[in-house]
């Protein structure tokens, strides 16, 4: 007799999830988790049963020479020899000397990088130098116009480096042969203004026809990028200095170990800073 099967969707019985109020008590174990844990437990119990049977059948009077050479640790794990050769004192000293030389090489490399980073940071430091202009008379001093003298824009008069001239500012949008970095930067910035909507510091859109506004926004962005580069260089310098100090500390530890391995009567003491200090007895040289 055939069995009647209803073609309806049966209710799916899913395992309940972890209640929010019981998360503090730990993970809610499902059946699959329990099965893995139980299988692992029974596997270990079966192995222990085999070991117990072997130990019962073992002859207590049996003896072999390896019994005197092998030993176990506090956890009962058998300690065996890895086959490493025991080095004498001179060989260990030689290896420590090689390690010290390697650390000194790394430290010298880090010191050169630190010096280079310090030189790079000098480029970001604003100079306190003054540009002195000599004139022939008091009248020229009174009527002196720095904008006219330097042939630049009034907003760039306080800029001490790469100060653009008027002819460069007028022709920066043209494809000239001027290879000045500032001119190239202004030219690229204006091209970006033509394509994208660029805002100034106040959030207003920059007009491509207003050269003064373009110069102001360009200078503000250039200064912000310069500050970001300076911060990045400072972080890199800090990491290199920390690495150099770690290498110096490791080198000092190796040097101390080398000196302790050498002959000579020495005394161990602790100074007022809590550091361990070794003092060797002075030996008269003949």
Automatic annotation (TrEMBL):
<protein>
    <recommendedName>
        <fullName>U3 small nucleolar RNA-associated protein 11</fullName>
    </recommendedName>
</protein>
<comment type="function">
    <text>Involved in nucleolar processing of pre-18S ribosomal RNA.</text>
</comment>
<comment type="subunit">
    <text>Component of the ribosomal small subunit (SSU) processome.</text>
</comment>
<keyword id="KW-0175">Coiled coil</keyword>
<dbReference type="InterPro" id="IPR007144">
    <property type="entry name" value="SSU_processome_Utp11"/>
</dbReference>
<comment type="similarity">
    <text>Belongs to the UTP11 family.</text>
</comment>
<keyword id="KW-0539">Nucleus</keyword>
<dbReference type="GO" id="GO:0032040">
    <property type="term" value="C:small-subunit processome"/>
</dbReference>
<dbReference type="GO" id="GO:0006364">
    <property type="term" value="P:rRNA processing"/>
</dbReference>
<feature type="region of interest" description="Disordered">
    <location>
        <begin position="1"/>
        <end position="26"/>
    </location>
</feature>
<keyword id="KW-0698">rRNA processing</keyword>
<dbReference type="Pfam" id="PF03998">
    <property type="entry name" value="Utp11"/>
</dbReference>
<feature type="coiled-coil region">
    <location>
        <begin position="215"/>
        <end position="244"/>
    </location>
</feature>
């Amino acid at each position: 007799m055939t069995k009647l099967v209803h073609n309806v969707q049966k209710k799916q019985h899913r395992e309940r999830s972890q209640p929010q109020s019981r998360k503090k008590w730990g993970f809610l174990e499902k059946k699959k988790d329990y099965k893995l844990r139980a299988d692992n437990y029974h596997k270990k119990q079966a192995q222990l049963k085999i070991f117990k049977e072997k130990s019962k059948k073992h002859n207590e009077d049996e003896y072999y020479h390896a019994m005197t050479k092998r030993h176990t640790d506090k956890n009962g794990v058998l300690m065996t020899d890895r086959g490493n050769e025991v080095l004498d004192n001179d060989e260990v000293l030689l290896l420590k000397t090689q390690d010290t030389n390697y650390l000194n090489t790394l430290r010298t490399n880090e010191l050169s990088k630190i010096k280079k980073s310090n030189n790079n940071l000098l480029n970001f430091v604003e100079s306190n130098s003054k540009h002195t202009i000599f004139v022939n008379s008091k009248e020229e001093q009174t009527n002196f116009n720095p904008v006219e003298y330097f042939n630049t824009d009034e907003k760039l008069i306080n800029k001490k480096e790469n100060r653009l001239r008027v002819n460069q500012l007028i022709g920066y949008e043209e494809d000239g042969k001027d290879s000045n970095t500032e001119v190239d930067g202004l030219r690229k910035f204006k091209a970006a203004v033509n394509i994208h909507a660029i805002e100034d510091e106040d959030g207003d859109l920059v007009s491509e026809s207003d050269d003064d506004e373009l110069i102001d926004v360009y200078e503000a962005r250039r200064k912000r990028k310069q500050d970001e580069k300076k911060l990045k260089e400072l972080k890199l310098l800090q990491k290199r200095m920390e690495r150099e100090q770690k290498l110096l500390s490791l080198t000092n530890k190796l040097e101390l170990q080398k000196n302790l391995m050498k002959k000579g009567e020495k005394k161990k003491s602790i100074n007022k800073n809590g550091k361990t200090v070794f003092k060797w007895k002075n030996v008269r040289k003949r």
